[in-house]
Amino acid sequence: MADLHSQMNLYSMTRMALTLGPGLGFLMYLHSSTLNARPDILDRENRIHDTPFHQLMDHYDFIVVGGGSAGSVLANRLSENPFWNILLLEAGPDEISLTDMPLLFPVLQRSPLDWQYQTEAGETYCKAMKEGRCNWPRAKVLGGCSTINAMLYIRGNRRDYDRWEELGNPGWGYDDVLPYFKKSEDMRIEEYKEDKYHGTGGPLTVEYFRYHSAMAPSFLESAKELGYSILDVNGEYQTGFTLSHGTLRDGLRCSTAKAFLRPCCNRENLHVSLLTTVEKVIIDPESYQATGVILKKLGAKKTIYADREVILSAGSLASPQLLMLSGVGPKDHLEDFGVDVIVDSPGVGMNLQDHVAMGGQVYLFEMPDGYEGDENYCFNLPKVFAPDTVDKFTQKKDGPMYWLPVCEVMGFVSTKYANQSDDWPDIQYFMAPYSDGSDGGLFGRRAVNLADDVYSAVYEPNIYKETFSILTLVMRPYSRGRLMLKNNKIDSKILIYPNYYGDPRDLKIMVEGAKMANKLAYTKAMKKYNVRINPYKLPGCEEHETFSDDYWACQAQHYTMTIYHPTGTAKMGPDSDPMAVVDPRLKVRGVKNLRVVDCSVLPYITTGNTNAPTIMVAEKAADMIKEDWGVLHKYYDSSEEHEDNASGEKSEENHDQLDGYEEVTGKPNADLIEGSVKAKEEVLREKPTTLMKKTPKRQKDMDYW
């Protein structure tokens, strides 16, 4: 009889596979082979212990809402202090075996691990999508978007962070945040290990993807031919091209759950509650202090109190929604839905930014002379979704399962609208040996919500042919969207108005980017493939001449895509900014003991993928929280010492004294901190104590996922 892990993993796998049609047999074979041959992926002994509902305590020191890219980091770093009891709440389950495999990341979109948001229809975007609505994947799983994203590790540009600081956010300049990028990082790309811009020994491993197509060298040669350098885009300069860097460990996904939570999952002062939804933050209307949360787990409700802080790390959509439902947001909007207004904060849900992308820029090509069929020049579903791929993966730890065809090579360039002499690109490229035709409509069409008639007219004629795509992304959009409540229920999804191309400057930048991408496809390096653009035009764009500005503009407004980077909806800013939701310490303005720590606090979106910046924000926030409570540099991650110091009962008297906290201001009490150093050192020589108890892990708990 299969164990509980096999049953639950098979159940999740089956639900996911049934949405994929032709890939069912491949996925089922992959799953069974992984169970039998890849215990490193199952990692049962280090899986997170889900705290049962009846074991949740009434009080914790810190409650972290959201176990995603930021929340996982916070749970680890805050629980380094053995005197603090931490509760991490996550609406989804733990990771499953599929999430580890780079090739299958598109399968996770529109799955049970995805909240499955959609944008509201607009006049300037998503015209080729069903009902004019773009899909917006957001993770509903431990590790958050680091568990279902494309694993791309991009920090952003020095000028992004210097601009944050110039806005009135001290401590957020590039020189201030670089140490936090390095703190997390374990750089495993050999040529960058000793570089001053990178760290080693951190929990988050960064590698090149293990498998590449035979087309990848030509992509890089094409970029070089146009004058671009092949360089480390996370180093001193960003303008140029590279094989994609990924949050990977031994070729497999390294989510923040794997990197930060699994190593600390046995700490006695950390509880993790999965499948748990927070309905609202409790804010005292008289003291304006966050005191706890109301949560729901498997139908049961409970109020849990935070003796120190509630921290929202639910992401750029859910964090502002929770703020609004808790009474913090635009006054008129909250009153429309009968929400009692505690703090009128007009910036909540506003300032929505995303890296808008133009999909569908597809090129056909022919195999070069001498090709014998052994190498993959592009992703072709019948060839890749084959038993041989599974066997290479399970037996040799090699092959296309370690491949990211949707972004094999990435690049950053500047259009004529950016300062050409400055290293601050306004365009990012994904060069992909993949297209909506090469996957038979299995991944791309489904992920973006492409209308059936559009797919049939434009991409189906090229099904399973040799194709590649170049995806163009606008890095610093001028357009701003917003989020709005649908009603006053947390179970209802927030309404998303991305306002793509609402500012016409974004469309002009996109057109220039598409034209430059087209040049990449027609270099001498690509000539041997007899490259030609897909001759089938998007419905609604037929009247425009191919390669014309009008055609690219039309395509951009039809085949509009998110690259899953919504940010800025609870932005950080100084007191002088009325739209700033949090201050530079990430504290919610007007509410004590409440912070937001995720990508919603970014005042401006960064240049590149946003997962690495989100992890950095959480690393920095953890230090700020420790500093504000007077314990920075007093505790560090040492699993052996932590285990020794995690038994018995803690003294609340010592606990409160040592933290040096002023109840009224919520700021560090310098005198108390200085006076308590000796006392703190004395206590550290003894075994810290805790009120928390954990039931030892049972085998079926370890096997659950």
From TrEMBL:
Region named Disordered: 638-705
Binding site for FAD: 141, 278
Domain Glucose-methanol-choline oxidoreductase N-terminal: 315-329
SUPFAM superfamilies registered for this protein in UniProt: FAD-linked reductases, C-terminal domain, FAD/NAD(P)-binding domain
Cofactor requirement: FAD
InterPro entries: FAD/NAD-bd_sf, GMC_OxRdtase, GMC_OxRdtase_N, GMC_OxRtase_C
Comp. bias intervals (Basic and acidic residues): 638-658, 677-688
Family label: Belongs to the GMC oxidoreductase family.
Name under which the protein is recorded: Glucose-methanol-choline oxidoreductase N-terminal domain-containing protein
The species this protein was found in: Brassicogethes aeneus (Rape pollen beetle)
